[in-house]
Design goal:
The complex is a heterotrimer of chains A (497), B (582) and C (103). By secondary structure, chain A is mainly α. Chain A has 20 helices and two strands. The longest helix of chain B has 32 residues, at 145-176. Classes of the chains: A mainly alpha (497), B mainly alpha (582), C mainly alpha (103).
């Protein structure tokens, strides 16, 4: 096996099958080994992309249209790196979370957890390197099945219902998407994204109904307002590492497909009014999600509602890209949006892991019960604070840079109303993050008994949080990588420097 | 090589990360806290000004450099961070969470030094944010009710400030088409909507600088923090607001008489209002915090002079830099003295030595002859525009502020003497030595700095008989008043303590508490509590947040029938929108 | 009406029937059946497209898609049914609470 593509797909899927057969105790360690291996493969692919430009690979030597073609540019490489980094740290975390000291039920959880976890990783990888519409469908569906099963692992009526709701919404979304794919195939006769992009150039063959199916289906999976209602409980009732990965990566995967199709394939078919509508739903999501987060009394639900809000920011991209003429801001907006995906992935991963640690130690995650956290779990408090900074988009986090670039794009493309939304969203997120942090700092009588927390859990969330901060401190390399094979004119990011 | 300047803020940052991540090394690392500020002290002395250099890999591609103003700021900031850090090593020696304090202290230091060497807007803002939010961790350190309350207020105002700044800086960057400092003030002076932008930046940095009306966090937060942190908060971090004004506002680009008068009016309000409110405080640290507000008022007056007369700006800038240095060191001396006062109860000579050090700093702040205060105030007065008949008046008013300061700080000295009676800390050379060094710096630096950094400060350092008289008479006025007040202290006792630290905030804070305090707005409880409040508006906000409709709507969105309807609507709408090409 | 159009129209009708069942029926198993009817509609359309694109033989690509699609749909259905059973075991009802409230 001579290509990183093969390792990216083979390692997790093969691992998923093998761990089913292995005795339970060795499973988490093998999972950890394989996620680290996947990270290495992602790094390998990213360095190839960095040095040589976008990489393609025909699986088994079969070229399109019959074979399956894989492809990675800077965007794919960055998201693959993000995926394997977040999942590696979450795997470390799960070593402690499902450890032997934990009660028996969670130990059985852990046995089923590992194979599903690896399937999830494999389908994320497959999604980010897929280059045809149907492959994307398969990857999305695998992702859904693995994700739902992981949510339901927690057991109990709440988690089962949440998983069911998630499955129904995502299943429906997949079928809508597949309907769109069928119609697109009827129109173009090919599935390869590059070939379709060629045929759709100029927008003369705009398959309107097919696009509506595709984008709505993906919108449901990406939890776009008002199709987000399945998300908060699904993400909040899952085991902690699962919540982290669902919010950090799985939701982004659906958005990635939307972005690919909107920008790379159907750029000439989408219209300005549609873009404004997508932006408006994103804006509504920002405000509604933040407002709900402000109301919640449970920590994990606050964090989950905030995912709805943060996904809203991503949809603000479209009005900045479409129907506003040509200009440097289109690259700024696109790159800023992608950077927000990454930074949020690390920050949200850290928040959910930290929330999981608190739940693990305190036995519940009521915000009012978080008092005195600075004394009981100082490292978790710090990661909470840092991830909170990144979530609000305060400097020097990566989200700050992302928001700065989005704001630049709104002003330069003369659409100040989106800037108002970004500002309002920032204030609201500041309010709910402050609510959590101040609860942690409230000096109060400590709970009588606290379950001791394995160190690895605390450090995994801290490293994730620090990464989201590091993305802000050192943004040059990610942006260079992002430029490889990127759409839009390559005017380097930044405000006119 | 110039890029190496980034190491100045990076050193404390790296140490903070080490302290956080390597518990076994903490006993060694905590001793390095003062050392990490040494590059900041030495760079301006040994290297001098540094050409702006690009650092493409940091943030969005950033620039660092050191101009003359930056040199002075970096020097005195580094000095106070180092000495207060040294002091803190002993001060917190018996605190089991001292490493937490050290980590936040170092992060705030890193932010403060970073914003001084920054030569572009993004790095300045990022460093400013790092400093602001890290210092919240320092203020809350003691975790008393008072500290939590102070931190809450501080964080709320800081978020408001950061937000104003973000919008303002954004407009600046748009107007300049660049984020480099070289382009910013000029572009802002010419921009069409400059007044809005100036207002945003003035208010945003004003929160940090203790501008009247947005000062309310300051008399709570500065005293709440452990003493070494109070010293840097009041001595150095407050000056970051001033540096922000200097870097971004277009003073010196053109005459802006309206902003000049706004600054002078607000500055004088702060200068005298701070004294009045400070005099009735009963805690020495609160007294000092109000004194800082008062001194920052004088600095705001200086900024106003720059707005009034663009031609005078270079000289005003020098005056502001020297004033910042003078006030930073003298205020650092006084804050650190509060901790030292807790160690001297057993020794009469030590009490006298402490009082002597305090006296020196008090005299300096009151602008007594041969002190740094005389240099700083002299420079400020020298730059009063000679045109206009209000010149003489303003000069008098500034001298009167010295009277007020002398009174306020005399009161501080009396409050401090009370502290000396009880032993709070064993005598610690680790506190006394750095404190003595700050005193030495206070006495000497205003005279040395112009030479070291090649400032045109002849107007301040020159000594003449009229100037000496000008510096002396406010003290001569203040002394009898202070004596009278001392004699009548029983009568005055009623007034003292009548206004709690934080003045107007005490009312506002009730409102904040209702909104933000965690866990209180569980639906029923919150509405219940709010209905007892007189404030109808807050009751409405509470009702909206806690109300049922939002929950009901979310539930409806979750129901499949609604989803089906919405989905069909969205489908039709989206098809139409894709068809419609305007 | 050509053969292709006839099948395509039938697919549209099936799709609508499936959607109706999915959104309006409250029992989880019925919802899952609704989803499978939608799936059948999509597969029918794909087969019709394969027929329309025929040369010497029918277009093989949609056939491959349908085969894979059926596998995926079966797995998702199995998971959904398993979840529905567990929910019934845990809560005694095969409905989700939000539907019960709105009925």
């Amino acid at each position: 096996m001579s290509s990183p593509f093969e390792w990216l797909i083979f390692l997790p899927f093969a691992g998923g099958v093998i761990t089913f057969l292995l005795p339970g105790k060795s499973r988490p360690w093998l999972a950890l080994l394989l996620t680290v291996g996947t990270f290495a493969a992602a790094w390998w692919l990213a360095s190839d992309v960095w040095r040589e430009g976008p990489q393609g690979y025909a699986l088994g030597g079969w070229e399109a249209p019959l074979g399956i073609n894989l492809y990675a540019d800077g965007l794919s490489a960055l998201l693959l790196l993000t995926t394997s980094a977040v999942m590696t740290l979450a795997s470390f975390y799960s070593l402690g979370y499902f450890s032997r000291e934990a009660e028996a039920s969670s130990w059985t959880e852990a046995r089923a957890f590992v194979p599903l976890w690896l399937f999830l990783l494999g389908s994320l990888n497959a999604l980010f390197v897929s280059r045809d519409l149907f492959n994307l469908y398969v990857a999305l569906e695998l992702l859904t099945i693995a994700g739902v099963a992981l949510v339901a692992l927690a057991g109990g009526a709440t988690a089962l219902r949440a998983g069911m709701r998630y499955l129904l919404a995502a299943f429906l979304a997949s079928l809508l998407y597949l309907m769109g794919v069928a119609l697109l195939y009827g129109e173009f006769g090919v599935l390869d994204l590059a070939l379709i992009a060629e045929a759709a150039e100029g927008g003369t063959r705009a398959p309107v109904i097919a696009l509506a199916f595709v984008f709505l289906g993906l919108g449901i999976k990406a939890a776009l307002f008002p199709f987000h209602a399945w998300l908060p409980h699904a993400h909040a009732s899952a085991p902690a590492p699962v919540s982290a990965v669902l919010s950090a990566l799985v939701v982004k995967a659906a958005f990635y497909v939307i972005l690919r199709l909107w920008v790379d394939v159907f750029a000439d078919s989408v219209t300005a009014p549609a873009a404004q509508a997508a932006g408006a739903l994103g804006a509504a999501g920002i405000l509604w999600g933040s407002f709900q987060a402000l109301r919640e009394q449970r920590l994990k639900l606050v964090v989950a509602h905030s995912t709805v809000a943060q996904v809203g920011y991503l949809f603000l991209l479209f009005p900045l890209l479409t129907g506003v003429g040509e200009g440097a801001w289109r690259f700024d907006a696109w790159a800023g949006g992608v950077y927000h995906m990454m930074s949020h992935a690390f920050a949200k991963g850290a928040l959910f892991l930290a929330a999981g640690t608190i739940l693990y130690a305190y036995g519940n995650d009521q915000i009012s019960a978080m008092r005195g956290l600075t004394r009981t779990l100082p490292i978790t408090t710090v990661s909470f604070g840092i991830a909170g900074i990144a979530l609000v988009g305060l400097p020097p986090s990566g989200s700050f840079i992302a928001k700065w670039m989005l704001l630049t794009a709104t002003i330069e493309s003369a659409q100040w109303w989106w800037a108002v939304v970004i500002g309002a969203g920032t204030l609201l997120s500041g309010a709910y993050v402050y609510r959590l942090v101040s609860a942690a700092f409230t000096p109060d009588t400590l709970p009588e008994s606290i379950r001791p927390v394995p160190r690895v859990m605390e450090y995994a969330s801290l490293i994730l949080a620090l990464t989201s901060l590091g993305l802000g401190l050192r943004a040059a390399e990610p942006f260079d990588l992002l430029e490889v094979g990127a759409p839009f004119s390559m005017i380097v990011a930044g405000v006119g420097t | 090589m110039n890029e190496a300047l980034i190491l100045v803020p990076f050193t404390p940052f790296a140490l903070a990360v080490l302290i956080a991540l390597a518990p076994p090394l903490r006993p060694v690392l905590r001793r390095l806290v003062p050392v990490s500020a040494v590059p900041a002290i030495l760079t301006p002395i040994l290297v001098g000004t540094i050409e702006t250099a690009d650092i493409p890999w940091f943030l969005l591609g950033t620039q660092v450099g050191l101009d003359t103003t930056g040199q002075v700021f970096l020097f005195f900031s580094g000095l106070l961070w180092a000495l207060a850090g040294w002091y803190g090593v002993s001060y917190l020696a018996h605190d089991e969470h001292d490493y937490r304090f050290q980590a936040f202290y170092l992060l705030a230091m890193s932010g403060n030094l970073g914003l001084i060497v920054a030569q572009d807007l993004v790095m300045f803002y990022a460093a400013f944010g790092l400093m602001t939010f890290s210092s919240a961790g320092v203020i809350v350190h003691d975790a008393t009710r008072f500290a939590v309350r102070a931190t809450t207020l501080y964080v709320i105002l800081s978020i408001v400030g950061e937000f104003l700044l973000l919008v303002g800086l954004f407009q600046v960057a748009m107007a300049a088409g660049s984020i480099a400092f070289a382009d910013v003030p000029g572009a802002l002076a010419a921009a069409g909507d400059r007044h809005i932008t100036i207002a945003l930046l003035f208010a945003g940095f004003g929160i940090k600088a203790g501008l009247p009306f947005v000062h309310i966090w300051l008399p709570l937060a500065h005293p709440a923090a452990p003493t070494p942190a109070s010293a840097v908060l009041s001595g150095v971090m407050i000056k970051a607001g001033l540096l922000g004004w200097i870097r971004f506002l277009p003073a010196g680009e053109a005459n802006f008489p309206e902003w000049g008068w706004i600054c002078i009016a607000l500055g004088l309000t702060g200068a005298f209002g701070g004294v009045v409110l400070g005099l009735v405080q009963t805690s020495p640290k609160a007294n000092l915090a109000y004194s800082s507000i008062s001194q920052m008022g004088l600095i705001t007056v200086g900024l106003g002079l720059g707005f009034l007369e663009a031609a005078a700006w270079p000289a005003v800038l020098t005056a502001l830099a020297v004033f910042a240095l003078h006030h930073g060191l003298a205020k650092g001396t006084l804050f650190l003295a509060v901790g030292v006062a807790g160690t001297v109860a057993r020794s009469e000579p030590a009490r006298w030595a402490t009082m002597a050090g305090v006296a020196l700093a008090v005299l300096a702040l009151a602008g007594a002859p041969f002190t740094s205060g005389m240099v700083a105030k002299g420079l400020l007065k020298e730059n009063l525009p000679v045109t206009g008949d209000w010149y003489g008046t303003l000069s008098w008013v500034i001298s009167f502020s010295s009277v007020a300061t002398a009174l306020l700080l005399t009161r501080f000295a009396f409050l401090l003497r009370r502290e000396m009676r009880t032993l709070k800390h064993e005598p610690a050379p680790g506190m006394a030595v750095p404190w003595a060094l700050v005193i030495v710096a206070t006495a000497s630096m205003a005279w040395l700095a112009p030479v070291m950094f090649d400032l045109d400060a002849a107007a301040g350092t020159a000594i003449s008989l009229p100037k000496l008289w000008d510096a002396t008479w406010p003290l001569l006025v203040a002394l009898p008043i202070a004596w009278l007040a001392w004699r009548q202290r029983r009568i005055l006792a009623d007034i003292v303590g009548s206004i709690p630290p934080g003045d107007v905030s005490v009312i506002e804070e009730r409102v904040f508490r209702r909104v933000i305090q965690p866990g209180t707005y569980q639906t029923g409880i919150f509405v219940g509590q709010a209905s007892l409040q007189w404030n109808t508006f807050m009751r409405q906000v509470a009702a909206v947040i806690a109300s049922d409709w939002a929950g009901r709507t979310e539930l409806q969105l979750a129901s499949w029938r609604y989803l089906g309807t919405i989905l069909l609507g969205a489908m039709v709408g989206f098809v139409l929108l894709l068809w419609w090409t305007p | 009406m050509s053969t292709f159009e006839l099948y395509a129209a039938l697919a549209a009708v099936l799709f609508a029937v499936g959607l109706y069942g999915f959104f309006v029926r409250q029992e989880l198993v019925r919802k899952v059946v609704g989803l499978n009817i939608i799936g059948a509609a999509v597969f029918l359309l794909l087969i019709a497209i394969a027929y329309r694109n025929r040369g010497d033989f029918a277009d093989p690509v949609p056939h491959a898609m349908v085969l894979t699609g059926i596998v995926v749909a079966v797995s998702a259905t199995a998971l959904a049914l398993a979840l529905a059973r567990r929910i019934e075991d845990e809560t005694g009802t095969r409905r989700l609470p939000e539907d019960e409230e709105s009925s």
